[in-house]
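Task card 7
Instruction: Convert sequence to C-alpha cells.
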Amino acid sequence: MSDVRRTDEIQGEILHEYDGIEEADNRLPNWWLATFYGAILFGVGYWFYYHEFQVEPTTSEAYAAAAAASTEADVAEESELLALVGDASAITSGRETFATTCAACHGDRGQGVIGPNLTDGAWLHGGDPVSIYSAIRNGITSDRARIAGSAGMPGWGGQLGETRTRAVTAFLLSIRDTNEQGGRDAEGDAYAPAGAAEATEAAEQTDATEETEPAEETEPAGEGEEAEPEAGGADEAEAAEGDTEATGEQDEAAPDEG
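Output:
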C-alpha cells in the first residue's frame, strides 16, 4: 500500500493505492450532505415527538385504533338489509360491485369458483343477513376458513364503503336459494330463517298430539233420561187399566138398566 499522494485528472487527489486500486478523496456534494444531516435531525425530532413525549400516536398505533373502531362499529340491522332486497337500485349497485370485486372467486353468477357457491341454501359462516354483511365487511381470516387450503377472504368494508357493502349484501340475499346450474357443491350449514325451525317443530308436535289423542265419545244418556220413558209407559199402562175397569163397570151396569 502506497501513501504517495498525487492528483488524477478525473478522480482528483489520490490518497492511497493498494494492489492497483486507488482511493481518492473528493468532497461530497452539498445536496447530499444536506439530505444526510437533515435525515439525522428528522429522526431525532420524530423520536421525541412520537415516542418520548407521545404528542400523537404513531402510524401503527393509529392504524390499530382505526381497525378496532371499524370492527366495533355498529353493524347494519337485519331489517335494514332485508329492506334493501326490495330496492332495485341497491340490487343493481350490488350486482355491479359483485362483478368487479367478487366474481373472480365466487363466479359471475355467484355459483362459486375457488370460493363457495352463494346461490344454494348452505353457508359456511352464517346465512342470516347480518352474518353475510359482516363477512363482506370484515372478511374471513385464514384460521376461520372452512374450505381446505383456503387463505380466507379479505375484508372489503374499507374499500367498498358502507353503502356498497350493504348493496352487495342485498344482492347476495336476492340470489340465495336460486341454485345456479354448474356451481360448486353445497358447503357449510343449511340456513333457515329465524323462527322457521321453531314453527316447524311446533307444527310437528301439534300433529303428534292430534294423532295420540282419542276421538271424543258420545256420553250415554243418564238414568233420568232413561227413566222418563219408563214413567211415561207406566202412566199409559195405568190409564189403559183405568179405561178397562170403567168399561167393565159399564158392562155390569148395562143389564141393570135393561
